[in-house]
């Protein structure tokens, strides 16, 4: 039987069945040897994971990227110590990113980024903690030394030994001020005159301040409560050539609380110019009709 294909080629039954109408030849089971099955390729290792090689199926770890950004932001801990927690966060995000990449079997990449986040976070954390720890210990030692000096100077001022306090100041500073112990007494003594006995005193604050000549100055605020007045003293200390802290300046003022609580007494009336002339009464205004 003849048949035509869509291409116009005539086919016969022999063309359809090359075996001569006997049907397809079936190989019995177990006859011959089956071709060996090739094993599946091994998954890529961590070192072979690269988005540039297989960008279609690989994704960069979000934890690794966020960890690197947090570790870099942790450098701001130089300005404020609590910000160093950002680098701690970056360190842990880097470790989590490494774990995620290792378990993804090639689906997630970015191992160098995660490793950089962990290492940078650890380095920034250690560096900033050491830096701030050094200055904290230095300031604590300064506070202890200056606190003793501040109490000693305050005792001398409250005892009225103003000349001794003035002589404690550096000679160069006294020469620049062009003033002597008497001028210093006139500046400080009125704060404590007619104020009664001392009720309480306390050190309010100490601050370590760098100066222009690469030195350090420590202003100390001392609050003194007397029976009829509250005074805040400001004592400035500097380190001399021998490494000792000496008073560099003294100032003070009555507090606003004291002014409100202890108002000044009213001024006495002015005496008349002529003692024999009685005080004149103010003229009275006539009543309106």
Quick recap:
Among the domains are: 46-136; 159-261, Nuclear Transport Factor 2, Chain: A (Roll), CATH 3.10.450.
How is this fold's topology laid out?
Elements: E1 3-4, E2 10-11, H1 13-16, E3 59-60, H2 62-73, H3 85-104, E4 108-109, H4 111-158, H5 162-168, H6 171-177, H7 181-188, E5 198-206, E6 209-210, E7 216-226, E8 230-239, E9 245-254, H8 256-261
Parallel strand pairs: 3-4
Antiparallel strand pairs: 1-2, 5-7, 6-7, 7-8, 8-9
Architecture overview:
- Among the domains are: 46-136; 159-261, Nuclear Transport Factor 2, Chain: A, CATH 3.10.450.
- The strands form 3 sheets. Strands 5, 6, 7, 8 and 9 form a 5-stranded antiparallel β-sheet that branches. The protein has a two-stranded antiparallel ribbon with strand order 1-2.
- Helices cover 39% and strands 17% of the residues.
- The chain is built from 8 helices and 9 strands.
- It has helices at 13-16, 62-73, 85-104, 111-158, 162-168, 171-177, 181-188, 256-261; strands at residues 3-4, 10-11, 59-60, 108-109, 198-206, 209-210, 216-226, 230-239, 245-254.
- Helix 2 (62-73) runs parallel beside helix 4 (111-158).
- With 289 residues, the protein is α+β, with helices and mostly antiparallel strands.
Characterize the main sheet. Answer: 5 strands, antiparallel
Q: Using the coordinates shown, work out and report the CATH topology of one domain.
A: Nuclear Transport Factor 2, Chain: A
| CATH architecture type of one domain | Roll
Structural class: alpha+beta
Number of helices: 8
Count of beta strands: 9
Q: Uncertain regions: pLDDT < 50 for 5+ in a row? A: 285-289
Mean pLDDT: 79
Radius of gyration: 46 Å
